[in-house]
Amino acid sequence: DPVPPLQVIRPEPCHVCGSRIRFGKTAIKCCLCQLLLHTKCREQCPSLCTPRPHHHAWPREGVLADFAPSTPPLVPALVVQCVTEVEARGLTETGLYRVPGAEQLVREWKRKLLRAGGALPALSSVTDIHVVCGVLKDFLRGLKEPLGEGIASPLTVLPGTATDIPDDAASDTALCHVVSKLPPANRDTLAFLMLHLLRVSHSPDCKMDVFNLSRVFGPTLVGHSSANPTPLAIMEDTPRQCKVVARLLSLPPDFWRGFVETEQENLVPV
């Protein structure tokens, strides 16, 4: 039951082909089941409101908790597996997370992992490590709410924002408080990801310092300051999102380890 074409404000994946519908492009959304798809993919989706079962696979999109395990740390296996693979053979690659992987391969592997659910296929057969990076970024972008949803909004009501408080110690304290109040799965996954990105930033071969990584991950990880941002607000939010991620990466690693090192045996790829 499609509505007239709408303009996409935040990039989301098409439920037919899996490719992202980019900012400003037109798309179709079903009134009943809320599936979103490219206008060109409409003919390939004959029954919008009766999606096929995925045989216990993960949803194609959802909030992060939908993908998280039942015991802490609450980090989805897909995230653990991508990060593990990147750290095993990607820390000598220049432009890690900045250089794009082949879009078709990223799409195919993301689909494989989402359909697999808990028992994920090995990523060692993916020759180009940038494809693995692309899968991780695309998974995070495809969430119904950004991983750091809730970070931006509380910061806007602090005296100044946590990224603008002149006193670094006060800024860190405010930011740590906001992070600790995130939903547990978001908090644990953000911590796991921050520790990973710090390792990337410390690799001289990658040439991806905190500034470069914050530019890549800012719009992906940090939510907007309003629930329904306009295109102009989205553009204005981008520098602030990058600044928030840079500040997150400046927090002490021990702060992040406190969330994910309680049950390290759970952070082993399936």
Automatic annotation (TrEMBL):
GO BP annotations listed: mitotic cytokinesis; mitotic spindle midzone assembly; Rho protein signal transduction
Keywords recorded for this protein, A-Z: Metal-binding, Zinc
Domain Phorbol-ester/DAG-type: 1-49
A cellular component term, taken from the record's GO annotations: nucleus
GO molecular function: GTPase activator activity; metal ion binding
Sequence ranges assigned to domain Rho-GAP in this UniProt record: 62-256
Pfam families named in the record: RhoGAP
SMART domains xref list: RhoGAP (SM00324)
PROSITE patterns per the UniProt record, alphabetical: RHOGAP (PS50238), ZF_DAG_PE_2 (PS50081)
Annotated InterPro entries: C1-like_sf (IPR046349), PKC_DAG/PE (IPR002219), Rho_GTPase_activation_prot (IPR008936), RhoGAP_dom (IPR000198)
Listed PANTHER family: RAC GTPASE-ACTIVATING PROTEIN 1
Protein name, UniProt field: RGAP1 protein
Organism: Copsychus sechellarum
The organism's taxonomic lineage, starting at the top: Eukaryota, Metazoa, Chordata, Craniata, Vertebrata
Gene: Racgap1_0
